[in-house]
Each structure stands twice: as structure tokens, then as C-alpha cells.
Amino acid sequence: MPKIIDHDQRRREIVAVAKKLIIQGGFEAATMRSIVAEAGFANGALKRYFPSKDSIVAATFQSVLAEMNERINDGDPSLDPKEALRHDIEVTLPLDTYRIDSARVLLSLWEHSVANEELATLYREHLREWRRRLAVRIAEARDRGESPEAPTVTALAGEVISMSIGANVTCLMFPSGELIPEHRAHVDRLMRNITD
């Protein structure tokens, strides 16, 4: 009886290998050859799942963005609006080893997306949706009857996103987490600025 292969699981495994290689050696380390070797597949088997490195990169990018969205959506629905906002900010920051590694992958993929319009479009859509969700959370946390589209609210959402991206960039130089206390303190200041 032939062995039944879960092709979706194989794709997830390949993406996990690509992430691991990017974490260890940057974007250039995730070659088709190194992915095949690390995953333990025959050379031709990889092309069945991903015809090119760009297709693996796109799947890896989507995976990292989906993980970030899942962490945001994992918030406790019983949290009050201020704590829900704090949760949504903190899950995007490099506050543990896993998120520091995710930042390494995401930043490598950002660089690659500059020359790849499909990836750039994917990330722009992610940024728009992130800003929209943050604006809703901020308007709720401020409790001033503001619309999520109000200029003050959207400006604050932009500030949160810029702070998060900056924290993810700087964590690359401090991969053991030395900046985690600084990032947490910044969240406290940002929360006061938003809600006071």
C-alpha cells in the first residue's frame, strides 16, 4: 500500500526549514540546495511543493505574518480595552527568543521584498490591516468617542507600528534580549501617551 503523504504538512515543514536557515544565516543561507539538505528531501521533491526560491520566500513571509496575526487574535476577549491594546502592541515586539527569531526572518524578507513586487504588495496589505486594527483598539482604549479614522487615532497607530518595527530592527544587534526591558518600558510610555 503506498504511503499517504500530507502535502500541506510537507509545505509547512519546508517553510519551517527556510525560517530556521534564515534565522541562522540570513536570507542568503536559505538556498534551494540548503533547504533540500536540511529538510532531508531529494532535490526534485522540493520543486513539487515550491517551484522556486521566490515561492518558498513568499510562503515563509506569509507564514511569519500569519503567526503575528494569530498572536494578535489570541488575546483574551474579556480584557478591558486598554489591556487589549497593550496585548496587541506587545505581541508585535521582540520580547522573547521566539519573537526575536521571527524578527530576524521578517527583516530578511523585507529586504528581499524591495525587489519583489508580489511580496511588497503582501506586506503593504499587512501594514494597512495592522494599522486599521490598531486604530480600532486605540479608539476603544481612549474611550473619547473618536472614530478609528480620526487623524489623532491613525497617527497614534502609526506611532505604534513605527515603534514596533524599530524594536524589531534593533533586536537584531541584541539577539540575547538585552533590550527587552527597554521595549517594555517604551510600551508603558506609549500606553500613557495614548490613554491619558
Automatic annotation (TrEMBL):
* Alphabetic keyword roster: DNA-binding, Repressor, Transcription, Transcription regulation
The cross-references to Gene3D superfamilies, in alphabetical order and at most eight, read: Tetracycline Repressor, domain 2
SUPFAM superfamilies in the record, alphabetically? Answer: Homeodomain-like, Tetracyclin repressor-like, C-terminal domain
* Gene Ontology molecular-function annotations: DNA-binding transcription factor activity; transcription cis-regulatory region binding
UniProt superkingdom: Bacteria
Question: Which Pfam families does UniProt cross-reference here?
Answer: TetR_C_6, TetR_N
**What InterPro entries does the database record attribute to this sequence?**
BetI_C, Homeodomain-like_sf, HTH-type_TetR-like_transc_reg, HTH_TetR, Tet_transcr_reg_TetR-rel_C_sf
Record protein name field = TetR/AcrR family transcriptional regulator
Q: Organism, per UniProt?
A: Streptomyces buecherae
